[in-house]
């Protein structure tokens, strides 16, 4: 018998029951809840007269609909948004789950709050009614999104019905060049495998370049596993992970920490584990990248030119033509000639402190291009506070950026932060779908350092041309 992968180990440790056809009941350690996908789930419990099975394992925070302007205490204007946030507020209090309301400094994007507060730990199963739950896989946790009916199931039973996925290994060998970041890794992987490359798999990211990343960088990589089609993405925990976790408010303490650590150290894929699919990229070959189209797989090095539909095969030919029309681009145009009018730095992909440091390192002492609308939306109130303490906020303000409160914001435009038709944005988020940042809006995905560079020049820019010191995140 061959050894086990990290995914196999976490899975096996959580199976409550297995049917003959392989369907399993899995125990869930952490259930994260936001306002968009939970109202009907709580309503279901109420109608059935049920309680939340494990309120101590359930963490709720509003993020998608919250305003990020400094006057947000005024409340939410949009009725639908207001109703969702009010429902979460009521449900969290009625059902007694852990809750970070909108006026709590710990409020923020659910995938940033969980790790920050020490809710996310190695070896756990973590679910949330949100596709970017994969972020938590950075800790060596099995973390993925679930639908609203599953949210109700987990609330009621603390278990989830699941079938096991296959094992995929994505190895990034060697080291990254200066100016190349975790975002460039994760986009490049999707560029190589396509948005369906991970379908049916749980990905484990490994290799020297992954090992060298901070926890922030690892979260950026795992965050986009879902954009590559995978059920989840994870990274084996190591000293970097343990050091990040230790001392966080809800991490185990003292003897309990030591006991947990002993288990966490067994969480790696055995040398003789079986992989159903393996993808290898050389760290040295990864360039600072941007997306040109309307799918996260439309990735190219910033030094490249806009492709022609004829460069593709099959259904992608038509898709590329449609993407070019939507994006208002011409084949052969240099990517660095594409002018932008908006910059968004934030989201659960790149709204952590290292991301803000990387952007500020480029912006220090510089001004954004005249007429540019640029905003930084920290991923949580605590990220915001830390950035203020470190002087990063002042760098952003001096450069001409807006300095906002925490939330999802222009990542998906459920709050007033939206693009107008035809506006073009350099964004650090994870989806460039049509209309994602507002109807008719055009999105180019990239790293925080690249977004900062674009803010200065007013066009997509190779950050290496502006670098005084290497970007780290
Ligand atoms: C609103 C929510 C269900 C959605 C998701 O599942 O990812 C959102 O967070 C997104 O990024 O599109
Ligand atoms: S920041 Fe964006 S990707 Fe992340 S949870 Fe919010 S909307 Fe989804």
TrEMBL record:
Keywords: 4Fe-4S, Amino-acid biosynthesis, Branched-chain amino acid biosynthesis, Iron, Iron-sulfur, Leucine biosynthesis, Lyase, Metal-binding. The lineage of its organism: Bacteria, Pseudomonadati, Pseudomonadota, Alphaproteobacteria, Rhodobacterales. Residues 8-458 form the Aconitase/3-isopropylmalate dehydratase large subunit alpha/beta/alpha domain. InterPro entries: 3-IsopropMal_deHydase_lsu (IPR004430), Acnase/IPM_dHydase_lsu_aba_1/3 (IPR015931), Acoase/IPM_deHydtase_lsu_aba (IPR001030), Aconitase_4Fe-4S_BS (IPR018136), Aconitase_4Fe-4S_dom (IPR036008), IPM_dehydratase_rel_enz (IPR050067), IPMI_cat (IPR033941). Binds 1 [4Fe-4S] cluster per subunit. GO terms for biological process: L-leucine biosynthetic process. One of its GO terms (molecular function) is 4 iron, 4 sulfur cluster binding. HAMAP family: LeuC_type1 (MF_01026). PANTHER family: 3-ISOPROPYLMALATE DEHYDRATASE, HOMOACONITASE, MITOCHONDRIAL-RELATED. This is 3-isopropylmalate dehydratase large subunit. It comes from the Bacteria. Pathway: Amino-acid biosynthesis; L-leucine biosynthesis; L-leucine from 3-methyl-2-oxobutanoate: step 2/4. Its EC number is 4.2.1.33. The gene is leuC. The keyword Mitochondrion does not apply. Belongs to the aconitase/IPM isomerase family. LeuC type 1 subfamily. SUPFAM superfamilies: Aconitase iron-sulfur domain. [4Fe-4S] cluster binds at residues 348, 408, 411. Heterodimer of LeuC and LeuD. It comes from Salipiger marinus.
């Amino acid at each position: 018998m061959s050894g086990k992968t990290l995914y196999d180990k976490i899975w096996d440790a959580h199976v409550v029951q297995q049917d003959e056809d392989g369907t399993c009941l899995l125990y869930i350690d952490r259930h994260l809840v936001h306002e968009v996908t939970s109202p009907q789930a709580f309503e279901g419990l109420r109608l059935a007269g049920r309680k939340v099975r494990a309120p101590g394992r359930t963490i709720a925070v509003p993020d998608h609909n919250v305003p990020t302007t400094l006057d947000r205490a005024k409340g939410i204007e949009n009725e639908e948004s207001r109703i969702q946030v009010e429902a979460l507020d009521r449900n969290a209090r009625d059902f007694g789950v852990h809750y970070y309301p909108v006026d709590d400094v710990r409020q923020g994007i659910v995938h940033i709050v969980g790790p920050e507060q020490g809710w996310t730990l190695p070896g756990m199963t973590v679910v949330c009614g949100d596709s970017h739950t994969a972020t938590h896989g950075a800790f060596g946790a099995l973390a993925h999104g679930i639908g609203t009916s599953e949210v109700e199931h987990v609330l009621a039973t603390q278990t989830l019905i699941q079938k096991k996925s296959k094992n995929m290994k994505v190895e990034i060998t060697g080291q990254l060049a200066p100016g190349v970041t975790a975002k460039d890794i994760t986009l490049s992987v999707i560029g190589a495998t396509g948005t369906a490359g991970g379908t049916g798999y749980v990905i484990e990211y490994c290799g020297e370049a992954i090992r060298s990343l901070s926890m922030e960088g690892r979260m950026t990589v795992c965050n986009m596993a879902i954009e590559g089609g995978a059920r989840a993405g994870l990274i084996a925990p190591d000293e970097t992970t343990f050091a990040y976790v230790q001392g966080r408010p809800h991490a185990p303490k003292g003897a309990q920490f030591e006991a947990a650590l002993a288990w966490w150290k067994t969480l790696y894929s055995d040398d003789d584990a079986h992989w159903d699919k393996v993808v290898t990229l050389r760290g040295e070959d990864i360039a600072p990248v941007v997306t040109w189209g309307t799918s996260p797989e439309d990735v190219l090095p910033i030094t490249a030119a806009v492709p022609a539909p004829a460069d593709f095969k099959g259904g992608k030919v038509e898709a590329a033509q449609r993407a070019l029309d939507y994006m208002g681009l011409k084949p052969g145009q240099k990517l660095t000639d594409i002018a932008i009018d908006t910059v968004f730095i934030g989201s659960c992909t790149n709204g952590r402190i290292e991301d803000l440091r990387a952007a500020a390192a480029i912006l220090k002492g510089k001004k954004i291009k005249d007429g540019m609308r640029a905003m930084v939306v920290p991923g949580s109130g605590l990220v915001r506070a830390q950035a203020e303490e470190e002087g990063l906020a002042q760098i952003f303000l001096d450069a001409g950026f807006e300095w906002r409160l925490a939330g999802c914001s222009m990542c998906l435009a459920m709050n007033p932060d939206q693009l107008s038709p035809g506006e073009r944005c350099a964004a650090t988020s994870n989806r460039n779908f049509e209309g994602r940042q507002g109807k008719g809006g055009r999105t180019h995905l990239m790293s925080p350092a690249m977004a900062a560079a674009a803010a200065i020049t007013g066009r997509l820019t190779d950050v290496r041309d502006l670098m005084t010191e290497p970007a780290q995140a």
